């Protein structure tokens, strides 16, 4: 991350428009006008470090094309970078965004690995979590007074509790687990300072040390959680390193992203009371509303792919090593796909066509769970507090890939 940041900062200083995307505080505060500019410049826009697209069709094509990889294989990197990369891999702990994490693994390894994890992460298993998510949401809501920080007291707690259930983390370890997750989660973002990076590493090391022992306990005495099933797969198995990376990825990926969905979703409904009214009139609309929240202000704003072989995309010839940034948040505002894309409309018929969960082989494995948590979490919140209002100044996270609120002070004048 550090090296990438150095390159990006230098390019931004030289006026590179895409590099500015990652460092400019104004763009970070509101990236949508920036995406519009990129989209107007063309389907695939070249910067000094990478190509970018804010077009829905082009972003989808890149994500789905097998000419692109996630690029962490050192085969395609320039020799000095590859050397640093290999050295780094030897000294850093296995984290959510380090190999063998599936997020940064290309087929055919990715195919095998994801297939094994998907065996336990089934639609039925996710749906089976519904009663527990509902119960957790109600418990968290019962603890709140008339004024509270919605992120700190609710949005940040629901997803991590669900992940702890999935991973079979015992009650007594929950607090500790939350702290490690909080430390490790920023690893999903770009441009960490060295101090932040150190902190994520410490969180990952501590959680890994505990996790290795946890795998042993689950092997001896399985629980009814999904991780127990994963350590007890019949036939082909995941290695301990793959289990560690998976547990870390579930924690990190299911952590801040879903927190952002809950925070952003709540803020959108509080600032669009007519839309909230539509949900009150017809609770069957909640599912679509969550899609519109994901589309309108995506918790993950961008990703990157590295070209693996010569390929033509949108009339542009790309060569191996070229980096393309599909701007997911920008694709979600493409007027060619979404009418009046800057309008938040919970009844939008095609909201689900957003790219917030990416596309192709890395399509979010937790999408069904995220949707369920969004729907249950937000519905429970507004059922309990129909008159919830923003009460103070919301503060955005300083992250670049992830987008959401760090703090959202609210008041709940009417409690039922
Ligand atoms: C991958 C978004 C919640 C697990 C991804 C990717 C995106 C994403 C954009 C792909 C990145 C890329 O293509 O480079 C989100 C959003 C969420 C969310 C917006 C919440 C609103 C979750 C949850 C879990 C999860 C709750 C699991 C508990 C994963 C995993 C991958 C992934 C395992 C890697 C899949 C692969 O590489 O094959 N997510 N995610 N995510 N997500 Fe999520």
UniProtKB/TrEMBL annotation:
GO BP term, example: cholesterol catabolic process
Keywords: Heme, Iron, Metal-binding, Monooxygenase, Oxidoreductase
Pfam families per UniProt: p450
SUPFAM superfamilies: Cytochrome P450 (SSF48264)
Top-level taxon of the source organism: Bacteria
GO MF annotations in UniProt: cholest-4-en-3-one 26-monooxygenase activity; heme binding; iron ion binding; steroid hydroxylase activity
Keyword Nucleotide-binding: no
PROSITE patterns linked: CYTOCHROME_P450
UniProt family annotation: Belongs to the cytochrome P450 family.
Protein name (Swiss-Prot/TrEMBL): Cytochrome P450
Originating organism: Dactylosporangium aurantiacum
High-level lineage: Bacteria, Bacillati, Actinomycetota, Actinomycetes, Micromonosporales
């Amino acid at each position: 991350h550090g090296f990438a940041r150095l390159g990006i900062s230098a390019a931004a200083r030289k006026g590179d428009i895409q590099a500015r995307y990652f460092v400019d505080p104004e763009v970070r505060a509101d990236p949508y006008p920036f995406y519009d500019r990129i989209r107007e410049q063309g389907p695939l826009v070249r910067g000094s470090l990478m190509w970018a697209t804010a077009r829905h069709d082009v972003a989808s094509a890149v994500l789905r094309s097998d000419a692109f990889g996630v690029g962490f294989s050192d085969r395609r990197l320039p020799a000095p970078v590859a050397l640093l990369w290999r050295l780094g891999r030897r000294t850093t702990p296995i984290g959510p965004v380090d190999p063998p994490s599936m997020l940064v693994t290309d087929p055919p390894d990715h195919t095998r690995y994801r297939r094994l994890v998907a065996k336990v992460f089934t639609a039925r298993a996710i749906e089976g979590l519904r009663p527990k998510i509902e119960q957790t949401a109600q418990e968290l809501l019962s603890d709140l007074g008339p004024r509270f920080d919605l992120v700190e007291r609710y949005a940040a707690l629901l997803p991590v509790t669900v992940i702890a259930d999935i991973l079979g983390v015992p009650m007594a370890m929950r607090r500790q687990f939350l702290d490690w997750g909080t430390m490790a989660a920023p690893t999903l973002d770009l441009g960490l300072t060295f101090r932040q990076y150190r902190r994520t590493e410490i969180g990952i090391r501590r959680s890994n040390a505990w996790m290795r022992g946890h795998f042993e306990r689950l092997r001896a005495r399985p629980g009814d959680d999904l991780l127990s099933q994963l350590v007890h797969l019949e036939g082909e198995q995941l290695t301990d390193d793959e289990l560690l990376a998976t547990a870390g990825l579930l924690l990190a990926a299911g952590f801040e992203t879903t927190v952002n969905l809950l925070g952003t979703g709540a803020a959108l409904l509080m600032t669009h009371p007519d839309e909230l009214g539509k949900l009150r009139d017809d609770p069957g609309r909640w599912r679509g509303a969550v899609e519109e929240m994901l589309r309108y202000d995506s918790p993950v704003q961008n990703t990157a792919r590295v070209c693996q072989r010569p390929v033509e995309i949108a009339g542009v010839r790309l060569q191996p090593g070229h980096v393309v940034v599909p701007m997911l948040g920008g694709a979600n505002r493409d007027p060619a796909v979404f009418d009046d894309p800057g309008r938040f409309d919970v009844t939008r018929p095609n909201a689900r066509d957003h790219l917030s969960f990416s596309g192709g082989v890395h399509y979010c494995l937790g999408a069904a769970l995220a949707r369920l948590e969004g729907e249950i979490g937000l519905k429970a919140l507004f059922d309990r507090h129909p008159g919830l209002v923003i009460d103070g100044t919301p503060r955005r996270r300083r992250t670049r890939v992830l987008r959401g609120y760090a703090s959202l002070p609210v008041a709940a004048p009417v409690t039922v």
